[in-house]
Amino acid sequence: MKLIGSLASPYVRKVRIVLAEKKLDYAFELENVWVPETRIAEANPLGKVPCLVMEDGSTLVDSRVIVEYLDTLTPVCKLLPAGGNGRERADIKNWEALADGILDAGVLMRLERTQRPPEQQSEAWIARQHDKVTRGLAALDARLGESVYCAGKSYTLADVAVGCALGWLSFRFPEIDWRGAHPALARLFDKLSERPSFKDTVPQ
């Protein structure tokens, strides 16, 4: 398998962490989708990363699709429940959706600041996205509470997704003091940051 992505993308990091946790072999091809010479559209018509190219040449796009597929390849470090436990599975995927939603809003904030001329930037738009980040973090912190992991006592895809969101916020928006405002998330992030899969994929 080949993963196309960047070292800064939190969505790519999520896939890289799952690949590491599942002990799956793959090649990593760096791609900057923001430069004119990018060729990402040859693999993903949406022009986005991550993109997973499988052995037969077919591709999977979107981090949520990719990680769900990867979890089926080996029983090592099962990140989603097997069998018919739909409620438990939906809960984990809901954690992931909330974490990715925070990232989506954060990315839109960053793009507004970095990809548009200052005179065209909308402070109202940035504030709207910032509110989504703030509300999302508060919801995650409240849901986590005193639990060891997001979805109970076991490490799951929920923790991977939340950890990637928090790591990216620290990387791109150090002025957002999510640690001070959300001690439960800070405790979880510190715990996750000790895992080799997180240590080896710190955004840069």
Give a written overview of the molecule.
The chain has helices at 10-21, 63-70, 86-115, 123-144, 157-172, 178-181, 183-192, 196-199, and strands at 2-5, 27-30, 51-53, 59-61. It has two domains: 2-70, 3-Layer(aba) Sandwich (Glutaredoxin), CATH 3.40.30.10; 86-195, Up-down Bundle (Glutathione S-transferase Yfyf (Class Pi), Chain A, domain 2), CATH 1.20.1050.10. It is globular and about 50 Å long. It has a four-stranded mixed beta sheet with strand order 2-1-3-4, covered by helices on one side. The longest helix has 30 residues, at 86-115. The protein contains eight helices and four strands. The protein is α+β, with helices and mostly antiparallel strands and 204 residues long. Helix 1 packs parallel to helix 2, helix 3 (86-115) packs parallel to helix 5 and helix 5 crosses helix 7 (183-192). Its EC number is 2.5.1.18. One of its GO terms (molecular function) is glutathione transferase activity. This is Glutathione S-transferase.
